[in-house]
Amino acid sequence: xxxxxxxxxxxxxxxxxxxxxxxxxxxxxxxxxxxxxxxxxxxxxxxxxxxxxxxxxxxxxxxxxxxxxxxxxxxxxxxxxxxxxxxxxxxxxxxxxxxxxxxxxxxxxxxxxxxxxxxxxxxxxxxxxxxxxxxxxxxxxxxxxxxxxxxxxxxxxxxxxxxxxxxxxxxxxxxxxxxxxxxxxxxxxxxxxxxxxxxxxxxxxxxxxxxxxxxxxxxxxxxxxxxxxxxxxxxx
Length: 236
Description:
By secondary structure, the chain is mainly alpha-helical. Helix content is 78%, strand content 0%.
């Protein structure tokens, strides 16, 4: 008898989530491709105050990464995510320019989509935990073959709730810190250049450390548990 060609290789919830985390981030390369364009924009704006240079440079870096992916015939998901983010930011910049905004106000507008997106997914994920259907659980379900079967096991629900709280923490903290700064800068309560510098500094100096700490805590939690996935018996 030969072994089945596609025998199940995932036996625990933790293994499923670890695999899904790796896929969602795209490994080191995916994280670099998703994060570097925004980093380039922020650094160039802070050092040159040249908005056009910062935008074009960020787009160029993303374009090169996309070209390399296409040549290698590998997934372009993470590069496309970065390009979409730049395109949306550019649209907000153009809108600010069309309403007579200064270059500093346009730069501030570039950061608004990220704040809005982080706020939206924070609210959605918090709500998913509060109603007992944590977001990470659907990641488990997508691999197990049934998107909702995991909810029948309280042990899995508790684990997924903890993981979801850890997953959303960096975005939630970012919104709580960056949101008020944006509003103060947009309203003129503080200097717009100062608001841009503070938001950029928070993203660079706090954003990545928070993400690393969050993922580290999730990995630790996954490494210390072994929650088995209960397979449905095959039909006779």
